[in-house]
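Two proteins, back to back. First:
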Amino acid sequence: MIYKFFKISFLFILCSQFTQIVNSSENAYLNKRKKIVALTSLSADLVNSIDSKSLVGIPGSSLLKSNPSYKDIEIISSGRMPPNLEKIIRLKPDLVIGANGFHDKPLSKLNELGIKTLSTKIKNLKDLENLNREINSFLLKKDIEPLSKKIKNCYFSSSKISKNKNVIALVSTKPILSPNSKSWSGNLIKRFGLKNLTSDLQSKSEFKGYVNLSQEWLLKSKPNNLIVVKTPGSNISQYESLAIWTKIPAVKKKNIFSFNYYGLINPGSLDSINKACIKLSSI
């Protein structure tokens, strides 16, 4: 009887220890934090919002430099210079996220070296929602915080959408560029129920999603609202230099809305997108 008792006790202890080892191994696997290098400020912001400790490399963007939460993260690029592949490799990332068309070469090279990459193309909020889910899935996060909670001002009830307001967005004057429906800005403008007068124009410029306008066409279209964008290295006064400026209905009515480049043209960051949505809702 005593023998049986010790035998059962011994087996119980062995099973208990085996269970602890298995659970410990599973927890170690689940708790092994994956490392991500982001080549764009927006992808860096998304990763940071999901798991800040997984973000190990970021671009040298002014949007991130001003945010103290990024101060201790390795900077892997500067300005328009290509990312430093040596720095990225030293970080031993599990994933590198870049922009389609802009980071094709470095992503291809990293792929050849056996590093997993993700090429993104963000043309609308649906694309951004998908990227948010994809990063969550890669990091094995069970509780996915929806994008609607991160950029609340871009989500609203249909009753708040503007009706029958036409608009033209001007990005530059030499040449005069305006977004059509195939751009991030064109889709964001449409989201707020604004009628973008250049939406259906075909792009013939080197900038995909943007169309070249003549001053004659701009005057003839008679926009009641104008969005003017301050791009890096320029200011809003550039638009006032247009010969037909004072003849445009929107100018006469003083319906001119100034926007930053980041948020409306280049998504930039979650904060800049949110601010752009706030301004669009005021038109």
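And the second protein:
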Amino acid sequence: MNAPLFDFLPDYLEAAFPPPRSFQDPAIDSIIAGRRAGHRAQMLCAPTGAGKTYLGLKLCHATLKTGKKATFVCDRKSLINQTSAVAATYGLHQHGIIQAKNPKFNMDLPFQIASVQTVMERGWHDTNLIVVDEAHTLYQTMVDHIKTTKATVIGLSATPFSRGLGKIFTNLINAATMHELTESGELVPMKVFSCTRINMDGAKTADGEWTDKAAAERGMQIVGDVVSEWTKYAENRKTIVFGSTVQHCEEMCRQFNECGVLAEVFTHQTKDVERDRILEEFAKPSSAIRVLISVEALAKGFDVKDVGCVVDCRPLRKSLSTAIQMWGRGLRASPETDKTDCILLDHSGNIVRFIEDFTHFFYHGLESLDEGEKLDKSVRKEAEERETAACPKCGYKPFFRRCMSCGHEPAPQAAVAALPGQMQEIFIGKNRVASSEQDLWNQLCSFTGSTRSKNPAGWAWRLFEQIAGHRPPNSFRFLTDAVPVDPAVRRKIKSILIARDKAMAA
């Protein structure tokens, strides 16, 4: 049974949100369209800087205005107060907080901000909309409830790569890509330094991933290099460091402090009083804390915009999502502090191990939740086994097919035959398969539109890029009308899919 309509709407009609960015309203429109099409549980993929909290709270507000109930679910203690404070700035002051011992507990209000841990202990309450922040971290009780509830469910995640998400959420929406957010100035470019690397040769693994204990033991051997190379490349930048275990983090903290750099450790073992003190201080532009060190407590949803350096000391072989979450902590733009880039000091080798898949995700986002799941399944080669090429145009490293700094992308040989004027015939091998780029684009739209792809426009975009050797013009729009698809185009698409499957299997 749906939750009853309320006879009063506290202050919800008076709420005022900042003007949306260009991609935010279309993302919400896509969610509404998905719900009308029958998708009760949908996933919104929104990178760091895309405003996931803004989008989630705006969806809650739309529900509250109709007199129904909405719940925003967080999976971190630190995110409860952060979300509550943001909601208040938008005018959504009257909300309850479902969290143990929280003074704002009030189940009489139609808008709740809930700790997933508390909800799991106390049981679910009646609501019409559930917005799940960091939805790639799903607990079994959450999964069971999503499958059985009649409420509309919207998952928010920068990295929806977790196993089984495609069986829970039936529709995927890409709000924006990391590249688009960098181009628009929401994110800053990442400047990478490959530093003294943790030697993981022969280190113990479990299910294909290095164990935290093994990674920490190897990481202990280069702590002095971590401190000295930070001093060399990033001194005075507000910094987040990621280690493999609490003990690893504590040792790095000790050595930073011995060198006169005020550092603090922030992990699941940090007591609530200390958490509040550390976060309040670190959020200040003039924070005395220069280096904050963590395992995972800071990797998801933690937002301090003027962080100018991320130090990655947590070697990974499979979890691209964890790497992206760590690196993303420093990518938010901060015009008020004149931040122009973020330095990544890579002691883990992760940037080279994941460069191929990260480059693709940076530019294109996800085609499907199943694709995201595969990205966290594959064991990547060791960094020494990969070529660490530099961009032939600007020198940025590491480089794979397309530069994440300047966007340079060498064109495949003989993919496009240029003719005088604006017209370009498209050849695959010696066969002319399209009279122009527009003709090729129309064929690809027709092909992807006839499949079960959840993002046919994005797939057409990627196929065009692989066949023509460059991105389709911005003026091209997805074509819904069916047109004949040249057999050679179909064969080329098949070969691309086979090559992709082989690469994923490898």
